[in-house]
């Protein structure tokens, strides 16, 4: 993001088609203000889903750095403040059962 008000900066932004106006800039500023809260909620949701799915009988494996059994858990715990919002789950069932699950 480049912000400037001098005539030179504005002219260069227009030349490179990098000007977006006031509305997108205000939307970006608003989204940045709530970024920390959204990431914290994503972390909490992923952790909750991982814990719930790990207890489910049809699950073979839950891949999430926040789970103690995850191969990189200790490293992630040292390096990260949260474990992220993405996880992966292997489900033990046939193709038809997997799509209806």
Automatic annotation (TrEMBL):
Which BP terms in the Gene Ontology apply to this protein? methionine biosynthetic process; transsulfuration
Q: Which UniProt keywords apply?
A: Pyridoxal phosphate
Entry GO MF terms? cystathionine gamma-synthase activity; pyridoxal phosphate binding
Keyword field contains tRNA-binding: no
Q: Which cofactor does it need?
A: pyridoxal 5'-phosphate
Superkingdom is: Bacteria
PANTHER family in the record: CYSTATHIONINE GAMMA-SYNTHASE, CYSTATHIONINE GAMMA-SYNTHASE 1, CHLOROPLASTIC-RELATED
So what family is this one in? Belongs to the trans-sulfuration enzymes family.
Query: Under which name does UniProt file this protein?
Result: Uncharacterized protein
């Amino acid at each position: 993001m480049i912000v400037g008000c001098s005539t030179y900066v504005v002219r260069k932004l227009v030349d490179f088609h990098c000007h977006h106006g006031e509305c997108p800039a205000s939307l970006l500023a608003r989204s940045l203000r709530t970024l920390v809260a959204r990431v914290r909620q994503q972390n909490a949701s992923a952790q909750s889903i991982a814990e719930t799915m790990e207890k489910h009988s049809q699950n073979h494996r839950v891949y999430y750095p926040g789970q103690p059994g995850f191969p990189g858990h200790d490293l992630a715990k040292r390096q990260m403040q949260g474990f992220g919002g993405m996880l992966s789950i292997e489900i033990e069932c046939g193709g038809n059962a997997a799509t209806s699950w």
